[in-house]
Design a protein that fits this description.
four-stranded mixed sheet, 27% helix, binds copper (II) ion
Length: 127
């Protein structure tokens, strides 16, 4: 599902409005195709958090969330990035193209970084 989203919408989201529209579109698609999707549950419980990747930094670079929360990373830069667990590089968004988003359900704290630009770092803290 996420791969499909990345590939089909990576060129669309050049403005904040378009990003929001794409994101809402994804939520609607999820809601229609899978009524019990984690996205719908997250919406209901208002447990979606967003991390923007912009100007070569994760913003915010540290967030505290509750177990099972959904975090959406949105790449607003013109270059590719990744969101990759520092302790387990297999746990990664893969290449995240400009304008694409990565949705992650989080059940444990971890530090992440960008494999392309290793100075880019952030952390998710599950409370
Ligand atoms: Cu990067």
């Amino acid at each position: 599902m996420q791969k499909w989203f990345n590939q089909n919408h990576q060129d669309m989201a050049h403005t904040k409005d378009k990003l929001v529209a794409v994101f809402l579109g994804l939520l609607l698609i999820n809601a229609c195709t899978n009524p019990t999707s984690q996205t719908e549950t997250a919406l209901k419980n208002k447990t979606i958090d967003t991390v923007l990747i912009q100007n070569m930094v994760f913003t915010p670079d540290s967030i505290s969330i509750s177990t099972g929360s959904t975090v959406v990373f949105i790449n607003k830069d013109m270059v590719d990035h990744t969101v990759t667990d520092q302790a387990d590089t297999a746990h990664s968004s893969g290449i995240l193209h400009s304008g694409s988003a990565y949705t992650l359900k989080v059940d444990k704290s971890f530090n992440y970084y960008c494999m392309i630009h290793p100075v880019m770092k952030g952390k998710l803290i599950v409370q």
